[in-house]
Give the backbone structure.
Amino acid sequence: MLRSKIAGIGMYVPERVFTNQDMMQFMDTTDEWIQERTGIKERRFAHRTNETTTTLGVEAAKIAIERAGITPADIDFIVFATLSPDYYFPGCGVLLQRAMKMKDVGALDVRNQCSGFVYAMSVADQFIKSGMYQNILVVGAEKHSFGLDFSTRGRSVSVIFGDGAGAVVLQPTQKENQGILSTHLHSEGTNAEILAMYNPGTHANHWVKEHKLANFNDGEMGDMFMSHAMIDDAQNFPFMDGPSVFKTAVEKFPQVILEALTANNLTTTDLNMLIPHQANLRIAQFVQKKLKLNDNQVFNNIQKYGNTTAASIPIALCEAWQEGKIKEGDLVCLAAFGSGFTWASALLRW
């Protein structure tokens, strides 16, 4: 049976470390306040002009490709997941293809935010299993720092996020008990706007105004793609109803993990490693307790990097593997929940 295996994995985080104490320069917060709510101690921020989402992805991709024992010329398809692309359009996939001087292969961009990498893996997995491609580069990369509100007004969102990238090369394998066993994708858009970045957009803010999710003024604010009024009222920054997101996440995370295990006639006792999307350490701890997993079965690194959304799973997966916590033959589950809402899991045999 043809399956997709991770042939190479890489990660890259910017050099600049911003501790919770550093964040206190910009906003009224404390290390205790941040750690109590998120578990985060520090995060990485990219250089304002010299680094982009694409360049972060390129650095991670270089390592993954080298570890796969191939060259950029061998890549025959790219799937790039991000919520912070370099441009409104085109997407980062083609920019990475150009930067790495690859042949004119297909490049697909995935906009599923925190679930983006698992969605991207699932798409790539189907192409591998169909026999269409042999070396697919899957990238998750984010440069959040360029679009965050570094003031007391925006602290509930801005203290959470960091920059970084992770990448894998997927290849076909017929080796028994190896590769991606299954992927599971879900969405439910009823509450899409409680975790969203509204502007710039083509919606004219009708839904947001109707449901009173933000303090929009009449006239210019609601009628333009981008305006001074939007900027003055901080409507060009992400919005998150944290308690509502937390409540839904702790419900969907365990469900989608158990779905993957059940689909393969396995249980939590069979699981060697869970790599949850690094959304919030408190969410991960809740899920671990609910599934009765021990500390050796769950890997978290949000303490060091913050939430890097689409990049968080490949970064954590790479770091866990580099530290020897994932070995050949191990059963690994990747799981994510985020804006949309979307949630997803992938179960694989390393």
Observations:
- The radius of gyration is 20 Å.
- The domain at 3-173 is CATH 3.40.47.10 (Peroxisomal Thiolase; Chain A, domain 1).
